[in-house]
Amino acid sequence: MNVDLIFQIAGLGIVVAVLNQLLSRAGRDEMALLITIAGLVAALVIVASEIGDLFGTIKSIFNL
């Protein structure tokens, strides 16, 4: 696992948090919720690709 992956997810979280606060204070709560959900989906896509790589590595180690 690279440190870059951790920084990517942390950066995404910071951007989503800032946008969420800005939109909430502007009275755009629905848009803030949409941004939060989009950030969550983006983080899950990043993690899912890494989990796929993990399973591929395990498969090659045990010759399955």
From TrEMBL:
Superkingdom classification of source: Bacteria
Keywords on record: Membrane, Transmembrane, Transmembrane helix
Keyword Transmembrane applies: yes
InterPro entries the record matches: Spore_III_AC, Spore_III_AC/AD
Keyword hit for Lipid biosynthesis: no
Transmembrane domains' residue ranges: 6-24, 31-49
Signal peptide: none
Protein known as: Stage III sporulation protein AC
Organism: Candidatus Ornithomonoglobus intestinigallinarum
